[in-house]
Amino acid sequence: MIPVAEALDRLFALASPVGTEEVGLTDARGRVLRAPVTATRDQPPFAASAMDGYAIRETDCAAGTRLAVIGEAAAGHGFASAVKPGEAVRIFTGAPVPEGAERVVIQEDTAREGDTVILGHGISDNRNIRPAGIDFHAGDAIAAPRLLRPADIALAAAMNAARLTVARRPEVAILATGDELVAPGGEPRPDQIIASNAYGLAGIVEAAGGRARLLPIAGDSMASLAQAFDLARGADIVLTVGGASVGDHDLVGAAAAEAGMERAFWKVAIRPGKPLMAGRFGQALLLGLPGNPVSSMVCAHVFLVPLIRALAGLPPAPAPRRRVRLAADLPANGPREHYLRADLGADGVRPHPRQDSSLLSVLAAADALIVQPPDDPARPAGAEVEVIDL
Ligand SMILES: Nc1nc2c(c(=O)[nH]1)N[C@H]1C(S)=C(S)[C@@H](COP(=O)(O)OP(=O)(O)OC[C@H]3O[C@@H](n4cnc5c(N)ncnc54)[C@H](O)[C@@H]3O)O[C@H]1N2
Ligand code: MOO
């Protein structure tokens, strides 16, 4: 058994970034930007009014001053000439501030009489003008690589980029194995169960920015597994589920080796998920998850998501953790790093009383995984622990 951090490092060592493609802005969310986006103009491109009011010269700014309103500036419709002493231009938020004007007095601080505006008392010190380039200047860039969030996409759009160079979505071929498995909606024999893992894993893959490809369920035989590995060709990651342990019918390691996998590791000090394996598999990577449903999903959060992100070109990094107070006592841990299914509440994080790795109902109800280091002593309610949000 190797520690979780070492297993992750060995995985990252196998990962090299996939190629890129261009996408439109509406397809860019959650993708990894791979080429910088550079602004082609300042934003705003002109000094812009921040308020609705009157654009005036600074020397005219005194209570009771009467100014001639000589025209109007609206967003998208600038005022063509200058504001001179004794003059004002009616102006609206987002409009270019006319030449000569040094301040916008908000309309609430004025009175209007025909073509004259009268400045009131208590005009604020705020000039209400956004200088050109206050947001960004031509030549400013969004650096790559970067996981694109909605605000990044809006920023790229503001920079006048219509298409972005992003990582191709890493393809993950998901291979569930086991003679006991029948696809959902099928007709299982009394000694069979419904295959669930691949569907949860596909959701994790897609949410992480990958593309999931579900392969047909493979039986517990070398021939069936060989055939399945054949079908996995072309994927960036071959993700097997089940058959990873030491039983007579756990053949994934042997079948993968026969199909050309060079093993990087097998067995990690993690609970759940101990029989995890990984290796190079031709042009692809193979990640072999244990079959217990919770083990497979926990290992996907801990290993697969960071791997997909690294393949997309982000700097290798483990799943983000944060510190939260315990709302209940946490028993001492054994020799494996424990990822406990837990509920988050106003009083902190509470480990679920049942932690068996077969309990999908518990995982589905959980908000977070508490990460308890190997051989950690018991922790009382109120102590801080690290969690991964689900
Ligand atoms: N003698 C030992 N036995 C086991 C050990 C060990 O160290 N020594 N480790 C245990 C641990 S820990 C785990 S985790 C499991 C994992 O074993 P496998 O990866 O070989 O998984 P399977 O035996 O194929 O399946 C385990 C369990 O999960 C069900 N399963 C499998 N695939 C799916 C699926 N796609 N959807 C839903 N459920 C699935 C399967 O029916 C089994 O019940 O090994 C322990 N044993
Ligand atoms: O590590 Mo296994 O995943 O305990 O159930």
Strand content: 25-35%
Largest sheet: 6 strands, mixed
Globular, elongated, flat, extended or rod-shaped: what is the shape?
elongated
Instruction: Say what the CATH topology of the largest domain is.
Output: Molybdenum Cofactor Biosythetic Enzyme, Chain A
- Strand line-up in the sheet with most strands: 8-5-7-6-10-9
Q: How many extended strands?
A: 28
Indicate the CATH architecture of the largest domain: 3-Layer(aba) Sandwich
CATH-wise, what's the superfamily of the largest domain?
MoaB/Mog-like domain
- CATH class value of the largest domain: Alpha Beta
Structurally, the number of domains stands at 4
Backbone structural class: alpha+beta
Instruction: Extract low-pLDDT stretches.
Output: none
Task: List the bound ligands.
Answer: ligand LQZAQKY5, molybdate ion
The overall pLDDT, averaged over residues, is 97
How many alpha or pi helices? Answer: 7
> Which bin fits the share of residues in helices?
10-25%
Task: Sum this structure up briefly.
By secondary structure, the chain is of the alpha+beta class.
Task: Write structural notes for this entry.
Residues 173-310 form the MoaB/Mog domain. The protein has 390 residues and is of the alpha+beta class. It has helices at 4-14, 150-158, 197-207, 222-231, 252-258, 293-311, 360-365; strands spanning 20-24, 32-33, 37-38, 48-49, 53-56, 66-73, 87-91, 103-106, 110-113, 116-119, 129-130, 141-142, 146-147, 163-167, 171-176, 181-182, 193-194, 211-214, 237-241, 261-266, 270-271, 277-281, 284-289, 322-325, 337-345, 348-351, 368-372, 384-389. It contains seven helices and 28 strands. Strand 25 and strand 26 form a beta hairpin. The two termini are 26 Å apart. The mean pLDDT is 97. Bound molecules: ligand LQZAQKY5 and molybdate ion (MOO).
